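Support case: user asked for a sample of complex input and structure output to validate their parser. Sending the pair below.
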Amino acid sequence: MPTPTITLGVFDSGFGGLTVLRELLPLIPGARYLYLGDTARLPYGSKSRETIARYALSSGRFLLEQGAQHLVVACNTATALALDDLKHDLPIPVTGVIAPGAAAAKAAPGSHVLVLATSATVQSGAYTRALEAQDLTATEKACPLLVPLVEEGWLDNTSETQSVTAEVLRIYLAEAQREAPHATSLLLGCTHYPLLKPLIEATLLTMNYPLQIIDSAQATALAVARTIHTEPTTQISSASFYATDSIEKFQRLGSRFLGHPLPPVELIDLGG
Amino acid sequence: MPTPTITLGVFDSGFGGLTVLRELLPLIPGARYLYLGDTARLPYGSKSRETIARYALSSGRFLLEQGAQHLVVACNTATALALDDLKHDLPIPVTGVIAPGAAAAKAAPGSHVLVLATSATVQSGAYTRALEAQDLTATEKACPLLVPLVEEGWLDNTSETQSVTAEVLRIYLAEAQREAPHATSLLLGCTHYPLLKPLIEATLLTMNYPLQIIDSAQATALAVARTIHTEPTTQISSASFYATDSIEKFQRLGSRFLGHPLPPVELIDLGG
């Protein structure tokens, strides 16, 4: 049996980062993937920089110990608040989701980017800095209800629950439109949000607010793939899943994010 | 200056427990109150029993070290999953929110109680056990979106955000009505929910679902007050506030739960 080309560690506070893993799988075939959801301590989105950095470091070190040769921080909040700490602390390449998202925004038409994200990501100002470094204008909008709506599955199960999610999106996007009427693109600044993409597109259409949607999960996977030399291979990738809590919930919700059923998830203890 | 009659420790995963403290203040005057919000590790509602018990014990021990003579677990999830551990571990009386809520339901007319709570509280079955011990029938309904809606303040700021909260309540209550059409009372099984009481009452009215609302925060404060001998006093109570993270958010949201502005909140570290 051939050995895997590379071992990639992917980490998030929960299952959201599985949207990044989903994009990575077809781009880097034959790799060994290790995914860690730090579910005991989620959500990171409402916590302070110090706390998030501490959590991110223990997650990164765990994946390093398991053999990761490249760490993907598939969590906007951890990227915004702990990427520098991770790069400083770990002896392997570390890729976050913000710089690839900003680079993808640069490639889109127009120069004013609306970023939807959690409160902590917005408060960090990391997207504004990354977009301004690309000579783009940024308007950031915190959307704290979107993660719980996605985790509750109020997307497509019945029309009335989807209407609530659509109305919440309409309220957030109308606030954003008042603030940034001339925005040209919309960056999904949270790994939960790719699941909302069809509903966001439909909502923007009814609002006459034509924004090109940029998916930072997709942009991140592409950025990682570009740094890794892959030979054509027929070898199947392997993936191991770890969580710090709520294995059952991880298994149930995770498949929604990954797009197909998960293998058994291993419970680990990072302390705290 | 007279010494306080008693030092009461009140603990929750966040600010929700302030609804219990708000009820305690007028009932036990002249006391010293210590309130701890374990905000670094919230929400407890989606975590496992082991994790919640570990968090609750470290919070309880902290308040004991600060001089608490009675611990009020002002958190439904911690009561459901860690009350026995706390009672076993701490050398002071410990009161949770579930038994007082069940006793208040017993005093209400009718015998079928609908309980609204977080997923973890519902999964624990603690309310069903407590209500069945009172010869009552229980139907528990998990409402994961209500806490984020309350924390987002979508209660009264503009009519369109309040409409979203009302629609979410209507969806949850309609599901509950299909399951328990003959329920007679509704127990608010989460310390965030007292802030939703007016909206719940209005929603029930439009649904023709006449339930008497039982507020477990109020019931718990009454239960604690009954166990404490208080002399008439003109002494002013004192209150200290501790949080494990996000002091600014605690300060901002906390006043909404307490009903008046909070004094400065002290940041503490419980590890993890």
